[in-house]
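hiii, so i know i said id send this last week but things got crazy w the move. better late than never?? heres the sequnce for the chain we talked about at the cafe, plus the structure i predicted for it. fair warning i was half asleep when i ran it
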Amino acid sequence: MAASKEITRRNFLEMSTQGAVGLSLMPLIASSCSDANAAKTVNGACCLDCPDSCSWQVTVANNQVTDFKAPAEHPFTAGKLCDKMADYPTDVTYSPHRLLKPLKRIGKKGEGKFEEITWEKAIAEISAQLQTIIKEKGGEAILPFSYGGNEGKVQINAGDNFFMHIGATQLERNICGGAVEAGIMATNGQTTGVLPEDIIHSQYIVLWGTNPVHSNQHLWTIVEKARAKGAKLVVIDPFQSQTALQADWHLQLVPGTDTALALGLIHVILKEKLQDQAYIDQYTTGIEELTKHVEQYAPQAVAKITGLDETDIAQLAREYAKGSPSLIRVLIGLEHQANGASAARAIAMLPALTGAWKPLGGGLMNMTYELFGDALNYQLLDTPEGLKNKNTRKVNMVQLGKALTSKDLNPAIHALFVFNSNPAVTMPNQNSVMKGLEREDLLTVVLEHFLTDTARYADYVFPATTALENWDLFDFLRNALPYFQRTRHRALRAIKTQYGVF
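okay and structure toks below
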């Protein structure tokens, strides 16, 4: 009987747990290529936490990558990979420094001295230690730590059900994006805005606290096309970035004063009656309260706060209100300050005041992930309700150092699982984090491609699959193109996916 090629939601998850070798045995793979040595090209996507989310095509022959490129027909990647992704196979998958076998520590924590150990023995030893910790300390003595090292919907939450099942402490993963999202949600009720490719229609573009020349290269290509059609580019940023240097106008405000500037722009727009009153009356609430609040943010007052010239503040407000379609682009730069959410909330009010949402290419550009929730049945990947209801404590990831060193935490953290992250170099209060990782009574398990700073402190290190070696589904935060990643590279067949490990 011929093998079925249908991919159901259930067998998609099952396939994703088995890694490269398991997938190579799946009927879909076997039936799609009768000769295992024949060249095969498949589509995939960058798994990193980046607004570009490059789409790629990989060709494999004799279990070796022979070609890796961006598809020319993709509307956003458009035939060009970003600088980080261009050499991904050689830099990551085939790197001579890549971890290929599980390791067990034999030296002091931080020395990076390990010996190889089999998957079976490592899992057995870790399981035995976890059972002891759970019996003596309780499940909350175990802390999973992960973030956006792999953005695939399956791999990013690979351990959630396992850790919920054993009653582990829950990690609040909110170091990035949460403040801006909260601010925009407070104004708009959602974060979805203008799609990146629609910036081609904009005539007045404000890049607020973002540097796409370096960090959003594919969007910058479209911005340049819009400018060629006559769009004006304004950059608001305390930092003189490469994007700022290429802008038509750079407003270099004092760091942390974005909220005041946004409220000052609102003051001018309302004072000079530049608002779209019909749009405000039909689609917004709270205009009376806002009008009263911004009375204190006249250009003269805002100039003293922001360090900008008051005439520039007034000019920006007038140009923005009259430019159509006008678009504001914000990402996470705004939240590198104490008032990030407030800044995003105030900025999000501007397109509603001017009716910028009406024409194509106008409005606010931030996230796009909310477009996919219903269509992709996200609930299938959620933790079952029976496990969700466990009332276990939560630790904010930015307080990892405090959690690992606190004498008041009861129970103390006695086991740390790290995947999709390198907290030794990415979390605040690094000295506290390192002090915690040095604890001899802390069981630390790390899943990684390389022996990172965090991995050097681990008791056990498991090699992790790369984006070329596991199936997944990607919904990207900042462009509107989801990807089903069907890879078949099998060269490193001994490596399990993160989902498979848990």
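btw The chain is about 35% helix and 15% strand. thought thatd interest u
miss u guys!!
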